[in-house]
Design brief:
Blueprint: E1 10-13, E2 18-25, E3 40-44, H1 46-56, E4 62-67, H2 69-81, E5 85-90, E6 96-103, E7 109-112, H3 121-133, E8 140-144, H4 155-166, E9 169-173, H5 176-185, E10 187-190, H6 194-201, H7 208-220, E11 224-230, E12 236-240, E13 243-247, H8 260-273, H9 278-292, H10 303-309, E14 316-317
Parallel strand pairs: 1-4, 1-8, 2-6, 4-5, 8-9, 9-10, 10-11
Antiparallel strand pairs: 2-3, 6-7, 11-12, 12-13, 13-14
Helix pairs in contact: 1-8, 4-5, 8-9, 9-10
């Protein structure tokens, strides 16, 4: 990074944070008591995961999230332990707890994701109000994860308008109607997976030509400046007005897919924070997302793994 350029200011918003529990059991059998291994506990939710990866990679950011109840207090304490700069907005409900069980006999993963507490209008408005009042608005605002009950579908669309008013770039990773509504307001970068892109386009996307066409349509229509499409075992695709690039999957043994998407966003945002070119940030996203596949449970990527995988990432202009 050139010495005269300060890192970009990044804020990670998680409207539906969670306490993520993970454990292992020999096999999942209905009605039986499933004896589990020791449980790991992590602060989770899309934006928090992105922030954790960003910090692990050596970046800086502020997290913003609503928290409530004993689980919310635990989340706040855990984030403090990890030296995460954060602003917590109090809510009446209790922060959700989500659960992942890894079945040792088959390697299968069972993920139980709770809806989260219902937020009142005053509670979800407080997130927008906090952002509006910020004297130093972030250069990059990352909004990642689902919307909890009570929050209107157009919340991320309102966020996109606010970012436009303040001259910030919105990085969005969500799904469904909330994603579609936000794209109508235009965002800087969106990271759908293939299922989410298919839902957006209203078409089955079975070939690489169809993936590219659907991603290009988002860019050409002005809904997003950048589309970073994650394709699981098929790799990833980057599309901008300047072109398109693909990255094949790395030859690694997959232990768990949990956290791969958030790690991808975290790696990419870290590189953008350091003013790296977009194609190089894309490669860092692939490296970080792939590194997350090496650990089971709620694990995100480790910096050392991402750095070791980065030289193996091959991006090809299409």
């Amino acid at each position: 990074m050139p010495s005269h350029q300060a890192p970009l200011r990044v804020l990670c918003l998680t409207l539906n944070p969670s306490v993520d529990l993970a454990t292992e059991t020999e096999s999942v059998v209905a009605t039986h008591k499933l004896r589990c291994s020791e449980t790991t506990n992590d602060a989770g939710g899309g934006g928090i995961n992105v922030a954790r990866v960003l910090i692990r990679m050596g970046g800086q950011c502020t997290s913003l999230c609503p928290t409530g109840g004993p689980s919310g207090q635990w989340l706040e304490a855990r984030m403090a332990q990890e030296n995460m700069d954060a602003v917590f907005l109090p809510i009446a409900g209790q922060t959700r707890v989500s659960f992942t069980a890894h079945e040792k006999a088959t390697g299968a993963e069972y993920r139980f994701v709770m809806p989260g507490p219902t937020l009142s209008e005053a509670e979800w408005q407080s997130a927008l109000d906090h952002l509006r009042r910020m004297p130093d608005f972030p250069d990059l605002l990352v909004a990642s994860g689902s919307l909890p009950p009570g929050v209107p579908t157009d919340f991320y669309a309102r966020l996109a308008r606010l970012c436009r008013e303040r001259g910030a770039r919105l990085v969005l990773d969500t799904a469904g109607p909330a994603l579609a509504a936000a794209l109508k307001e235009s965002v800087y970068l969106v990271k759908p997976n293939l299922r989410e892109l298919s839902e957006l386009s209203g078409q089955k996307l079975d070939t690489s030509a169809q993936w590219q066409a659907a991603a290009r349509a988002l860019v050409e229509s002005g809904q997003a400046e950048v589309v970073a499409l994650t394709l699981g075992h098929l790799g990833a695709l980057l599309v901008t007005r300047d072109g398109a690039w693909s990255a094949p999957p790395l030859p690694i043994k997959v232990a768990s897919a949990v956290g791969a998407g958030d790690s991808f966003v975290g790696g990419m945002v870290w590189a953008l924070q350091q003013h790296q070119p977009l194609t190089q940030a894309f490669a860092w996203g692939v490296a970080a997302g792939s590194a997350a596949l090496l650990s089971i449970g709620t694990g995100l990527c480790c910096k050392d793994d991402a750095q070791q995988l980065f030289p193996q990432v091959q991006t090809t202009a299409l």
